[in-house]
Specification:
The complex is a heterodimer. Chain A is of the alpha/beta class. Chain A has a 6-stranded mixed β-sheet, sandwiched between helices. A 4-stranded antiparallel β-sheet of chain A has the order 2-7-6-4, with no helix packed on it. Chain A has a 4-stranded parallel β-sheet with strand order 10-9-8-11, sandwiched between helices. In chain A, helix 23 (704-719) runs antiparallel to helix 25 (731-751). Chain A is elongated, with a radius of gyration of 44 Å. The relative contact order of chain A is 0.07. Chain B is mostly helical. Chain B folds into 2 domains: 16-181, no CATH class; 186-339, no CATH class. In chain B, 60% of the residues lie in helices and 1% in strands. Chain B contains 18 helices and 2 strands. Chain B has a two-stranded antiparallel sheet. The chains are: A alpha/beta, B mainly alpha.
């Protein structure tokens, strides 16, 4: 470290690899003093003239502003304000082409000068050494200072470096041909620049300050040496004239033998670089109180009569600069902002100069020949010899042409500083830098896409996880209940099963009504075990029973002419049931708490009756007509119903929910199907079908709003009694309830696509539960429920399709 | 006002392919003159034949590829190939030798691989090897220097030999090669190789009138001519110093070691450096940018390996000279060399 400082003090420089020697052309513009332009009749001040966010607009159209008045105020994200370059009126605030290679429109404030050039109140500070660190930073920030060497990085950020700075480097190299703005500024304002350096020293306390100047500027070197002689910590270092020694990274290497790590910033290695123009602006801001509203610009080129440097107000149109210096354009004139190596051509001269504009170059075709046609690369690697970053430009070029982005990254494309040295020396005149720029943009786009895809994937996975978690939670909830059953209860279940079997045998010759009644009775006995909300639910159920019974009756009547004689029995039963149900419903309505038992009885009976009627109707109606054996009827019908339901579900559901639903259903349905062949199950099956149908029609009249509420209640209801079915002969009731809930759910599915998935999950978990429970019990209820659900769904789908 | 848009940089060094190629051709002149002086004007006839052939071949292929023929020709790369091949073959080789060589170099080695910049192999050397293997008699029929010839031959006689196979007086090339003493003359490299194989020492072998103390008569001058041209190329930044320097240094080191180990059978450093195609190979052949290594470190490796191969083949191989073989072999190794010799990019793998 000591040794390094010693070497630096002895004037040692460490040449970087590569570099080129294009004709300097500096004598065109550096022979005369900086002149001042007449006030233009229009100023275009873009809000954003630096790297970072816009300031916030604090003026409006029509408002009068004074010279130096802030037009925007800094907000977050490296925003830097802009100021009125002269006094006048804001003519407009609109989008104007920007001083950028793309010339994309940028929100700009257009000021019509009033010709008075009246300053606003300034706040000069005579002795800045009394200022605190933050005060100084704030002055730099509020004066709108951003790097004036070209990049436009907000100076207050750099000046407020959190990392310790060992070497403060002043970039006075100005290696780009033609440009002499820094050169003449140093000749004329060396004292102010040194003052600016000292302000930065106050902020950063570097070990050493090195001013790097190319040896083609002897006057500037002399004046800077003179101005800095009182300060032992400032060294003026003369560096050989090689392009691009003014590149930040190259200058650091040149002056300190250090390299900025790839992807890092100079502060990472204790170095900070500022351009002389920026330091002058800092001095003006602090000691004069003047914000950044003007800068030195070199106006040069063979088409300019009076090439030289001018003080230009920010926002001055380039046309004004050219006209004032005498401009006689040639055919196919190019006007460059910046120098010939890294500058960019402007699409129009109606663009305002900004904080980073150091040169306006209007060359003719002799000094800067138009590029010739691109020829084949002969791999001479003159480009590699010229590259200051030790890249392999010709390899990069092959990869860029073949869009091998991985290779480009491997060959460190992003360490290219786009200095243009490679393209300058290329004998085949390949526009290498252009290839790299395009490739960089493409790679960045590709990376952005990848990030996006990555995020989407993450979201999807999180969601999947959450759904799985929820489903698991639900399943656990269900599992816990059966598991909690005591041995005593198990015994009860066994008893109940026995009873059911017995009753089934007994009812062999009789109608299934008896069995149902028995079951209903059994249920009545255990009614006390019903959960709290069962009363409300039952009230609702009863109401629905009523509707269903009514419908069943109607259908029965309709079909009665074609019915077999045996079916009339059930029609009668249905009528009776209906009456009972009505009565029960009324009772329920008046006093639900007192009559749960009656309700249930009636409801069950009604259901059974309806079922019978329905069954008959179904048999006659269609598919099952050719099924002579009674026993098989239900099975066939069920199968058909399943198939239909599946088909319908597939057609209309979204792909995701479709899978879930279908899978669940199929697994569930397949399970009990062999058992449907069992005797005497028709009644139960038919009952479920009937209920589902009735439900569907009832549903259609309900509003979506109430539907949801109901469904929720019912599903909870359906879940609740599930464990208790085993207790006694409540199978039928439970199955019915589940079927109802399912039917409703299915209906709801088609209504709100958003909730489809969740509901489907609910269903699947729910469905699996009862089916396993009733498995030992011939699965009657489950089969019925499935069929009912399927049918209801199908209908619902059809209905929604039509609508 | 309508402004022209362009992408940076807006300045150019005014180097061009055409200038580059012409500079290399220009740098061949000292060597060419030496050949003219010592081996007769036949080389000029070969040169003209070669230039005509490559121009026709290049233009025809460009026409077939539907690209502007004139632009391709004007880059000068085909002419350079023609010059290098014409300088490499025996001056009195029959006309079809150079024509076949040029057609092969341009059509197969260069254009079938995609044209300029895409060829894997040095076109001139690939063609040379093709000719050497296909027509070994014609390709090794180098005449001794003019002063050793029993019957001096004029330009018209050389023309007649190239196109008819016989001089106007009816002598064939083999008859012309017979020296004053009635012995058929071979090249110095060939002579040494054969003599050493027959058990003679180098000193004995160099008693032959072909030699001028240490060097083959004429050959030393030809090599000096190419060295001169090569130095000019380095000075004008047309080629980098890496390949010639590592090439020559390696050959010098190897032959030096060989001489120290076996002074009786090893001809020594100077003989190796100034015989055969050493200097032509070092400055004009191995430095062909398209087929050579592209990184500076890679070029050092590339040049050194060519030098090593030349020494090995000359000393232990079946051919008297080995520039073409060595260059072609290393052309194949270029992608590998380039991959492993990439320079350290700024900011990567910091030194401190």
């Amino acid at each position: 470290m000591e040794k390094l400082i010693q070497q630096i003090k002895q004037g040692k420089v460490w040449p970087f690899p590569g570099g080129i020697h294009p004709p300097g052309q500096k004598a065109l513009s550096n022979t005369q003093a900086i002149s001042r332009l007449p006030l233009p009749d229009k100023l275009i001040v873009p809000l954003k003239q630096h790297i970072g966010a816009n300031g916030q607009l604090i003026v409006e159209k029509g408002q009068s502003v004074l010279k130096g008045q802030a037009l925007t105020k800094p907000v977050a994200n490296w925003s830097v304000p802009v100021h009125a370059p002269t006094s006048g009126v804001i003519a407009d605030i609109c989008q104007m082409p920007s001083a950028h290679p793309s010339a994309l429109p940028e929100l700009s404030i257009i000021i019509t000068p009033d010709g008075q050039d009246t300053w606003c109140e300034l706040n000069p500070i005579a002795d800045p050494s009394n200022l605190t660190h933050q005060e100084l930073i704030d002055i730099i920030h509020n004066s709108g200072i951003a790097g004036m060497g070209g990049a436009g990085f907000p100076t207050y950020i750099k000046a407020d470096s959190r990392k310790p700075i060992e070497f403060f480097i002043v970039n006075a190299v100005e290696c780009e041909p033609y440009i002499t703005a820094d050169d003449v500024l140093m000749r004329e304002h060396a004292d102010q620049i040194v003052k600016g350096i000292e302000l930065m020293q106050q902020l950063l306390s570097p070990t050493l300050t090195i001013i790097g100047i190319e040896d083609n500027k002897p006057e500037a070197i002399a004046s800077m040496k003179h101005a800095a002689q009182h300060n032992a910590k400032i060294i003026v270092q003369t560096v050989p004239t090689v392009y691009p020694s003014g590149g930040e990274k190259q200058l650091i290497q040149l002056l300190t033998d250090k390299e900025v790590p790839s992807g890092g910033i100079p502060a990472d290695i204790g170095v900070l670089v500022q351009n002389v123009g920026t330091l002058f602006a800092i001095e003006q801001a602090v000691t004069q109180g003047k914000p950044l509203i003007e800068r030195v610009i070199t106006v040069t080129g063979n088409t300019i009569h009076n090439a030289g440097n001018v003080w230009a107000l920010l926002g001055t149109e380039i046309k004004h600069l050219l006209d004032c210096q005498g401009f006689s354009p040639v055919p196919q004139q190019r006007v460059l902002m910046g120098g010939p190596m890294m500058g960019f051509t402007l699409p129009t001269v109606r663009i305002g100069v900004v904080k980073t504009t150091n040169c306006i170059l209007a060359p003719d075709h002799n000094e800067l020949a138009e590029p010739g046609p691109e020829q084949a690369c002969i791999r001479c690697s003159a480009c590699a010899d010229a590259c200051p970053a030790s890249l392999l430009p010709q390899q990069l070029q092959w990869f860029a042409k073949s869009k091998e982005y991985d290779k480009l990254k491997e060959y460190n494309l992003f360490d290219c500083i786009e200095c243009g040295a490679c393209a300058y020396v290329c004998p085949s005149e390949i526009p290498l830098v252009q290839y790299y720029r395009v490739a960089k943009v493409e790679i960045k786009e590709q990376q952005a896409e990848q990030v996006k895809a990555e995020r989407a994937k993450e979201r999807f996975e999180l969601r999947k996880e959450r759904l799985e978690r929820e489903q698991e939670a639900r399943q656990n909830r269900h599992k816990r209940k059966p598991a909690a059953k005591s041995a005593d209860e198990k015994q009860k279940v066994a008893d109940a099963l026995a009873r059911v079997k017995k009753s089934d045998d007994k009812a062999d010759s009789k109608s299934a009504v008896a069995a149902a009644i028995a079951r209903a009775k059994a249920k009545k006995q255990t009614g006390e075990l019903e959960p709290d909300n069962s009363e409300v639910a039952q009230e609702r159920a009863a109401r629905k029973e009523q509707a269903r019974a009514y419908k069943a009756q109607k259908e029965a009547e309709k079909n009665s002419t074609t019915q077999e004689t045996g079916d009339k029995k059930s029609a009668v039963a249905a009528a009776i049931a209906r009456a009972k149900a009505k009565k029960a419903a009324q009772a329920n309505n008046s006093d639900t708490a007192d009559a749960p038992v009656d309700d249930k009885k009636a409801a069950v009976a009604a259901a059974i009756a309806r079922a019978k009627a329905k069954k008959a109707a179904q048999a006659d109606n269609s598919e099952t007509a050719d099924a002579p054996v009674d026993d098989k009827k239900a099975a066939v019908a069920a199968a058909i119903a399943r198939a239909k339901a599946k088909k319908a579900a597939k057609q209309t559901d979204t792909a995701q929910s479709d899978e879930l639903t279908t899978d669940d259903e199929s697994s569930q349905v397949q399970e009990p199907s062999p058992q449907t062949a069992d005797d005497k199950k028709k009644a139960a099956v038919a009952a479920a079908i009937a209920r589902a149908k009735a439900k569907k029609s009832a549903k259609e009249t309900e509003t979506a709003q109430s539907d949801e509420v109901t469904t929720d209640d019912e599903s909870s209801q359906a879940q609740e009694p599930a464990p208790q079915t085993a207790d006694d002969k409540k199978k039928a009731a439970v199955a019915a309830a589940i079927a109802r809930a399912k039917a409703k759910k299915a209906a709801k599915e088609t209504e709100t696509p958003q909730s489809v998935e969740v509901i489907t999950d609910d269903e699947s978990s729910q469905v699996q539960e009862p089916s396993s429970q009733t498995a030992d019990d011939k699965k009657k209820a489950a089969v019925a429920a499935a069929i009912a659900r399927a049918k209801a769904k199908k209908r619902q789908q059809e209905g929604s399709d039509k609508s | 006002m309508k402004l022209t848009m362009a992408s940076s940089p807006h300045n150019h060094s005014h180097k061009s392919l055409n200038k580059l190629m012409l500079t290399v051709i220009l740098a061949c002149i000292p060597g060419l003159i030496a050949q003219l002086v010592f081996f007769g004007t036949g080389v000029l006839i070969q040169l003209i034949l070669a230039l005509l052939t490559v121009s026709v071949a290049e233009a025809a292929i460009m026409r077939i590829r539907k690209r502007p023929a004139l632009t391709a020709l004007s880059d000068g790369s085909a002419w350079l190939t023609a010059v290098l091949l014409a300088l490499s073959i025996p001056p009195l080789a029959p006309w079809w030798i150079i024509v076949i060589g040029c057609l092969f170099a341009i059509i197969i080695v260069k254009q079938l691989y995609g044209g300029l910049g895409f060829n894997l192999f040095n076109p001139a050397m690939a063609a040379y090897v093709l000719l050497l293997i296909s027509f070994p008699v014609q390709m090794t029929a180098w005449l001794p220097t003019a002063d050793l010839l029993a019957k001096p031959i004029s330009f018209t006689q050389q023309l007649s030999v190239i196109f008819n196979g016989y001089t106007t007086a009816g002598f064939s090339v083999d008859q012309l090669r017979v020296g004053i003493d009635g012995m058929t003359m071979a090249t110095p490299l060939d002579t040494v190789k054969t003599d050493v194989a027959h058990g003679l020492t180098i000193t004995e072998s160099m008693q032959s009138p072909l030699f001028n103390q240490w060097l083959g008569k004429g050959w030393g001058w030809v090599n000096l001519g190419f060295l001169l041209g090569g130095l000019y190329l380095i000075k004008t930044n047309v080629i980098n110093w890496h390949i010639p320097v590592s090439f020559i240094a390696t050959l010098a080191i190897c032959s030096g070691i060989g001489y120290l180990v076996a002074p009786g059978t090893e001809p020594g450093v100077v003989f190796h450096l100034f015989s055969g195609a050493t200097m032509l190979g070092a400055f004009f052949i191995a430095t062909d940018p398209v087929s050579a290594a592209t990184t500076n470190r890679g070029r050092l490796v590339y040049g050194a390996l060519i030098g090593l191969l030349i020494y090995l083949i000359r000393t232990f191989g079946g051919f008297p000279d080995a520039v073409a073989f060595s260059v072609l072999l290393l052309n194949m190794a270029v992608p590998l060399i380039d991959y492993y010799t990439q320079p350290r990019t700024y900011g990567h793998g910091m030194k401190k």
